[in-house]
Sequence to fold (184 residues):
Amino acid sequence: MAIPPSLAVYAKANPLMRQTANAFPTCEGALQLAMEQTAFTLQNARCLVIGAGRIGMLLARKLYALDAQVTVSARCTRDFARIAAAGLHALDTRRLAGHLAGFDLIFNTVPAPILTTEVLSDMKPPCFIIDLASLPGGVAADTLLPDGCRVLHALSLPGKVAPLSAARAVFDTVDTILHEEGIL
Fold:
């Protein structure tokens, strides 16, 4: 039996289902990395989540549930309203420069190099960036971090921290496509 074209490009054919299911292990993996890689608790940690999409907002809610001080950056009025409705602080992603000194942890979900040397110049040690975004990631390749600050590119977290859940998300997506196409 030939593979239907939709299966060859299943991530594009029906990405929302797979991406939403994999948002949970991505967020749990990000929390795990934050706990393993820092010398402080998430409770009262000053956290910035860059990006108010499905991963960013889910991560922000999980951090808030752990009593972190959470700010979410976004670019549009609708997202600012969602952030405020969730009881979180908002920051404009286009205006991050000069506003990062107060954060202990920065989680990036934006897959564009928005974190440049200029934007990160006011970070204070031991600030830690966990870049969750797909390549090219959010930290520009030529970015120089202030002394004592560091970045971790955390790609493919679902498969690393929850391989069974990640595989289930892929299986469910393929199964849905096969049913939608009348193959199963």
About this structure: The chain has a mean pLDDT of 89. The longest helix spans residues 15-37. The CA atoms of residues 14 and 173 lie 7 Å apart. DSSP finds eight helices and six strands in the chain.
